[in-house]
Input
Amino acid sequence: MDPNDIKVISVGDYLHDHLGSDDLMNRFNHNIEGGIINLKKFGALHWALKSGYHWMACIDSDTLAVRPLEGLFDVLRQNYAAARYIGNSVENVGLHEILTSCRAYFLPEDQVKIKNLTNDDSLYTWFFDVPFYEAADLADFFVYMADRYGSVNGFLCQLRVSSFEHILYVQWRSLYRGATLVNCSALGIYGDPEHWGFHTLMRVRDKFAYETSWARAGEFLINPDMLQAMPNLRMLFHFDRM
Output
């Protein structure tokens, strides 16, 4: 990767100059309802879309590359084209609240469909793989939300801490692009994908021919052989939660 290709942007400045209202900037500057994390992500995605990028990934700063990143987007594009999101039915109240909160952003008739697709707000897909976006789909997602809330600004003003950006996008894509939500609970797998270990990730790969491009950092310390066993593995996340 050429360091000259790295751009540092101020999402706050972009929101102010291109999407901002006094209400939006107040929510951003003062982290109203804890929504700043999702405002940053959606703001950066909107910037990337308007800047002409065709493929976008949201990668947290606590992530370490364990292989050269050349070829990462090839892996992510392949997984995206499969239009499958690997998840699991969870019983955690907090995760149910996230799914319910995200579903509420959609039109009433779409909320009913999402509730069915997510097994009554229990099928959780967050962080199985890198949150990844394609420009045409992302543009249509923003159009949907702008129609729903009067503008993109109106949508962004609704965001709070539980408005997980990729869950919203996955729910939209399952409705309007025919993406499939895969429930691994029938395999006897427990817990949410964000916390799955090496052996669970291997079971999922063998069953669904889908290998994630990242895994939890703490799991690598327990099973360092996973790097050799998973050729698509490029990154480890959550170094802030060791």
